[in-house]
C-alpha cells in the first residue's frame, strides 16, 4: 500500500516538475533574447599561454615570482 | 547643431548603409572630407552657449527632483528652445525635427578617441526585432503586432581596456568519486593578453544591460568624428574612472581564472592561492552604437536594445500566460503515464534488492535537481525581464527629445 501511494505521489510530482522545467526552458528560449555576455574568446586573440604546470603539488606551496606590480585586484 | 547640406541647406544625417552623410531632402551623399564644417560648427556652438547662459539656470531650478537636470539651448535651424538631458551630447529638435548636435557636452568633456558607426539602420533593427518576436512561440500575439512607440539610435560611451594578465596559482580539485574521492593540488603559471574589454561608462545605463550588447567588432572602430553622430543620440562618459578600471580588472580576473581552471582535470576546482601581475597597457574612450526600441504592453513599458553594429537583440518580453498554461498541462498529461512506468520499474528494481527506501531517496534527490534547474532558468528569465522593464532603461531611451518618430 505504502509503495503504491509513493509511486503515485512520485509519478505526479515528477511529471509536474519536468513539465515545469520544460515549459520554463522553452519560455526563456522563446521570449528572452541575447542574455549572453561577451566571452573570453571575444577579448583575446592569442588565448591562454600556459607557462608552467605541475600536478599533485602541496597546498602549502609557496608562490615566489616577484612581479613589477602596476595594478592590483 | 546641424550639419547643413552644401547643396540645399537641409540637415544632414549619418547613413548607416553607405557610411556617408545623407541629405534626405535632395538625396545627396557626402563623404567626411566634403563636409569639413568643424570650424563653423564651433562658432555656432559658442553662440548657443551665450544664448543659453542667460536663462538656462532659472529653467534648471524649476526641474522636479524626479526629472533629469536639463540645459536649455536654441535650435540652430528654427530657433526653438530645446531641453536637453544633462548627460546627452546630441539630440533632435522637438519642433522642426532636425538633427542637432550639441557640442557643449563633447567640448567640455574629454573627446572620445574612437567610434564604431551604426551599421544597422533603424528599419533593419526593427525588422530583426520583429523576426525575433514572430519566431517566439510564447510571445503574446499583442506583442507580435505591437505598435512601436519609439526607436532611438544611441551612441553609448564605453571605456575599452587592453590588459596583460599573468598569474601563478595553486588550485585544488576533487578527483575520484564516492569513498575514493580526494583533494589534489595543482600549480599553474599562465598569461593572457586581453584586448578591448568593454565597460559601459554611462551611469544611466544598467551595466548588466550594456554587457549583454557585447561583443562589438573593434576592427571597425574608427577615429572619432562628429559626422557619425549626426542623426543619432549620444550620452557622454559620466561614470567614475576608478570604478570602470576596477570593473575591467575583475572581468579579466574572472575570465583568466575560468580558463586556468579548465586546464585542471578534476571536479570542484578552486583557486587556493594566486599571485597576479596585471598591466593595463591601453585604455580608450569610445562610442558604441545601439538601437533602443520601446513599446508598451499591458501598461508596462518595455525597452529592447539592438546592437547597432551586429544586430544582436537584448531583452525579454512577457510570455503568453494562457499558452504557457495549456502547454504545461499538456506536457504534464503526457508525462504522467511515462513516469508511472519508469518509477514502477525503478522501485521494482530496488525492491528486488531489498532497498526500497533507497529508491525513494534517489527519486527525491532527482526532484531536488530538477527543481533547482527549473528555478535557475526561471530566475534568469525574470532578471532579463526586469532589465527590459527597468525604469533606468526607460529613462535612458525615452527621456530625450522626440523628433525622430
Q: How many E-type strands of chain B?
A: 16
What percentage of the residues of chain B does DSSP assign to strands (E)?
25-35%
Please give the alpha-carbon distance between the first and last residues of chain B: 19 Å
Structural class of chain B: alpha+beta
Helical amount of chain A: 40-55%
Helical content class of chain B: 25-40%
Distance between the termini of chain A: 62 Å
Question: Overview of this structure, please?
Answer:
The complex is a heterodimer of chains A (73) and B (405). Chain A is built from one helix and two strands. Chain A has a domain of 30 residues. The model of chain A has no long low-confidence stretch (mean pLDDT 83). With 73 residues, chain A is an alpha+beta fold. Chain B is an alpha+beta fold and 405 residues long. Among the domains of chain B are: 98 residues, no CATH class; 170 residues, no CATH class. In chain B, 38% of the residues lie in helices and 30% in strands. In chain B, strands 6, 7, 8, 9, 10, 11, 12, 13, 14, 15 and 16 form an eleven-stranded mixed sheet that branches. A three-stranded antiparallel sheet of chain B has the order 1-2-3. A two-stranded antiparallel sheet of chain B has the order 4-5. In chain B, β4 and β5 form a beta hairpin. At the A-B interface, α1, β1 and β2 of A face β9, β10, α7, β13 and β14 of B. β1 of chain A pairs antiparallel with β16 of chain B, so a sheet runs across the interface.
List keywords for this structure.
heterodimer, A: 73 residues, alpha+beta, 1 helix, elongated, B: 405 residues, 11-stranded mixed β-sheet, 3-stranded antiparallel β-sheet, 30% strand, disordered C terminus
Short structural summary:
With 73 residues, chain A is an alpha+beta fold. Chain A has one helix at 2-31; strands at residues 32-33, 49-57.
List the helices and strands and how they pair.
The complex is a heterodimer of chains A (73) and B (405).
Chain A: H1 2-31, E1 32-33, E2 49-57
Chain B: E1 12-15, E2 20-23, E3 28-30, H1 32-35, H2 38-61, E4 70-74, E5 81-85, E6 88-92, E7 99-101, H3 103-108, E8 114-115, H4 122-135, H5 141-144, E9 150-175, E10 182-200, H6 207-212, E11 222-223, E12 233-235, H7 241-261, E13 267-274, E14 277-297, E15 300-307, E16 313-316, H8 321-352, H9 356-389, H10 391-398
Parallel strand pairs in B: 8-14, 9-12
Antiparallel strand pairs in B: 1-2, 2-3, 4-5, 6-7, 6-12, 8-11, 9-10, 9-13, 9-14, 14-15, 15-16
